[in-house]
Amino acid sequence: MPHFILEHSGNLEDKQLNVDSLFSDLIETAVSTGIFPLAGIRCRAHKCEQYRIADGTKSFGFVHLNVRIGSGRTEEQKASSAKLLFSVLTEHLASIYDSQGLAISFELTELPEHKFNKNNLRDYLAK
Q1: pLDDT reported for residue 41
Q2: Which of 24, 33, 41, 75 has the fewest CB atoms within 10 Å, i.e. is most exposed?
Q3: Nearest Cα to 62, choosing from 109, 11, 121?
C-alpha cells in the first residue's frame, strides 16, 4: 500500500494529464515519507467518458485521486502524507487548472485491518 486510483473526465487529453509522470512523482513522494513500501504501491487510472460537471459546460474537467492505504499509520502520518500527496497532484495539474475549469479532489482512505494480499514483488525489485 498505498494504491493510487485516479479518475478523470474524458475531455482531459492524455498528453495534458501525463499520467505516467504523475504516477512517478506520487510513488517517489510516497516512498520518501518512509511509511509506504515501494513493493506495495499500485497505480491505476480510469478515464470517465460519461460525466457531467456543474452546469454541463463541456470544457469543465475533473480529476479525483483516491489513495487507499493499509491500517497502522498514525493520524499525524496520514495527515502529513495526504497533504504532501495532494500538493504533488495539484502541482502536476497546475497548467490545466490555469487554462480551464477544473475540479481537483483527493481522499486518503484507510482500509480495514481484515484485508488480504499476497505478492512476491520484493523478490524481483532491484536491491
Answers
A1: 96
A2: 75
A3: 11
Q: Give residues with Cβ within 8 angstroms of 40, minimum separation 6.
A: 1, 2, 70, 117, 119
How much is the pLDDT for 127? 62
Any long-range contacts for 93-101 (C-beta under 8 Å, 24+ apart)?
93/17, 93/63, 95/16, 96/12, 96/16, 96/17, 96/61, 100/59, 100/60, 100/61, 101/53, 101/54, 101/57, 101/59, 101/60, 101/61
117 has a pLDDT exceeding 80:
no
Which pLDDT band holds residue 44 (cuts at 50, 70, 90)?
A: very high
Please compute the mean of the pLDDT values over residues 78-103 and round it to a whole number. 97
